[in-house]
Amino acid sequence: MAKTAVVKTRIMSVFIVIPTYNERDNIGALGRAIFALGVPDLKMIVVDDASPDGTADAVRELAALYPVHLIGRPAKRGLGTAYAEAFRAILAGQICDWGVPDHVIQMDADWSHDPTVIPRLLEAVQDADVVIGSRYIAGGGIRNWDRARRALSFFANVYARAVLGVPYRDLTAGFKCYRRAALEAIDWGEVSSMGYNFQIETVYKVHRKGLRITEIPIVFTERKHGVSKMNLGIIIESFRKVLLLRLRG
Ligand SMILES: Nc1nc2c(ncn2[C@@H]2O[C@H](COP(=O)(O)OP(=O)(O)OP(=O)(O)O)[C@@H](O)[C@H]2O)c(=O)[nH]1
Ligand SMILES: [Mg+2]
To answer: Is the pTM value of this prediction over 0.85?
Structure first.
């Protein structure tokens, strides 16, 4: 009689990293929606920069119900440094006793990124090192942005793609999934972007290592609660740093 092979597939562990600044009205419900997806072995890390609205308290309430870890920083230091700090701690196995995950997802706290996309990101990362939730491929889009904001985002992407010579349509996307190896390929001490240029910088560095980057379509929706942190400094940083990235690698 033929023996039946029992194949045991290990459940992949997933950490979701969410930076917050004044997201008290968003983070609790978003966290509940994420854990309601029922993704196995999923844990959440929130990096909060001493939000004056008490976001950290909402995170602590969530942590009483779900595997949620709060990294609290003393002052607002930019989304790029928040991610870099979390990723370094994750790779060093310093988050609680959770070990080092197989996959890491990054997303915004303000519901611009639909949590129901998470299973699709995890499916796509089976055949890639980084998956970008992309607004600028067929099936993707943006809801509730005015023309100026659309134009800024579109132009930033055209500019970065041309300067860096990479094929990806949405380089400034903030909804992404990394295989652990992709995070390990980046020298986090070297990543210097404070703001949105962080998104471009990380994709470019992974690309330069020859890793596989794919895009899946997402519809991005402008925030309903809270205020935007977009400002001129962030835009200027991006235009300058894309050039520097090209020159210095
Ligand atoms: N920890 C931390 N998080 C930040 C900082 N700046 C922005 N964030 C968070 O990063 C995510 C993206 O920032 P947003 O302000 O939503 O940026 P955006 O989506 O480009 O702009 P709007 O949605 O129009 O406000 C959100 O979860 C913010 O709360 C920061 O300095 N520190
Ligand atoms: Mg937003």
So the answer is: yes
